[in-house]
Amino acid sequence: MTKDELKKFPQHVFGQAFTTLKCEGPVYLPWLEKRVKGSGGLILTRRIEDLWELHPSFDIVVNCSGLGSRQLAGDAKIFPVRGQVLKVQAPWLKHFIRDGSGLTYIYPGISNVTLGGTRQKGDWNLSPDAEISKDILSRCCVLEPSLRGACDIREKVGLRPSRSGVRLEKELLVRDGRRLPVVHHYGHGSGGIATHWGTALEAARLVSECAQALRTPAPKSKL
After folding, report:
1. Beta strands 105-108 and 97-98, pairing class
2. Would you state the pLDDT for residue 60?
3. Within 13 A of 222's CA, how many CA atoms are on the CB side?
4. Closest to 172 (Cα-Cα) out of 60, 9, 17
5. Contact status, residue 58 vs residue 87, Cβ threshold 8 Å
């Protein structure tokens, strides 16, 4: 940032200014769902306790269950990182601001402005914390004093499905002579939107390998 640009942030000695894209989940996810249905996909909603409940109705399972993989895949390596944000009305804001650590941020969107945030590892609490909300607003007002005039403040809490690394691999489950190919695809943490297209392409490739294996007859032993 230039010296003139930095005058707005006297508590900082350097910064970066750039233009980028912002993906809005509430709009983007329904668009993806529409694409799936338009390609002939069928979306079913049901609760399962075990991946084997999907057998034999489905030949291949793609496990994108996030934190649910602790139970469904027995993965103790996945854990929640709690995030609390505020959604406010401040339509005069047109530029995003993100502090160096990434913990404090102001993201203008289509219908509101998102103020953040928190990274609370291992915290499963989905109820908003009033003290945290006050702290978020205070931190954001330091970066953008005009936020003191924001209205319609709403609290939001979510759990990021985090892991030391994304689990993206095949696994063949075997039980009582039955076989269930599974492609695991979860653990993106806070980077899901940023990385999802690339990891989804890799997951699709793994599914194709599983489908090819199902079509290939098993070799018969010769005596």
Report:
1. antiparallel
2. 97
3. 0
4. 60
5. no
Are 82 and 157 in contact by the 8 Å Cβ rule? The answer is: yes
DSSP states along the chain: --HHHHTT-TT-S-----------HHHHHHHHHHHHHHTT--------SSGGGGTTT-S-EEE--GGGHHHHS--TT-EEEEEEEEEEE-TT--S-EE-TTSSSEEEE-SS-EEEE---EET----S--HHHHHHHHHHHHHH-GGGGG-EEEEEEEEEEEE-SS-EEEEEEEEETTEEEEEEEEE--GGGHHHHHHHHHHHHHHHHHHHHHHHHSPPPPP--
- What predicted TM-score, i.e. pTM, was given to this entire model? 0.89
Query: Any idea which of 8-12, 59-63, 138-142, 195-199 has the lowest mean pLDDT?
Result: 8-12
Written as six digits, the tokens of 220 are 């018969």
How far is it, in rounded angstroms, from Cα 202 to Cα 208?
Answer: 10
pLDDT tens sequence across 53-98: 999 999 999 999 999 999 999 999 999 999 999 999 999 999 999 9
Question: What amino acid occupies position 153?
Answer: I
